[in-house]
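Lab notebook, bench 4. Still working through the backlog of constructs that have no structural model yet. Next entry is a single chain of 138 residues. Request: give me the structure tokens for it.
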Amino acid sequence: MNAPTAPVSHRHHPRLHLPLHPSASWGIPVVLAVLFGGWVMFVDHNQGSTIPASAVLGVVSAVVVGALCYALGRVTPGLMPEIRAVLYGTLLGCALGFLHAVSGGSVYRSAGIGLGAGLAMMGIVLYVFHAREERPPR
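Model written out:
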């Protein structure tokens, strides 16, 4: 007869948390701002605006999105995952709704697209944050 064996304990392997490079705190918002501002400028110019007016709108929207992304990156690490998900979803929803409004869409359709994109982003970010959270070992 076989001797009883002790239950096998599975080791909990902690995730490797690599710190971001310090330039990522401002580099990612700058890249997103440049892309968003260029996109707004392109769409606005294709809707018939002059190049200087499109450039001003693109630069202003780039500064706003860049500042908001930088602020979110600085403020959110200490917040609950649910609040972080709402903030990221709100930023994306407002940005895409604004882009649709600049492209000539109606206010209701722009609001709907922004709301849908924001809710989708909120759901995805919430899933990612909860899937990556540390759970106590059993």
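Notes after review: The helical segments are 24-46, 51-75, 81-102, 107-131. Residues 70 and 84 are 14 Å apart (CA to CA). Flag for follow-up if needed.
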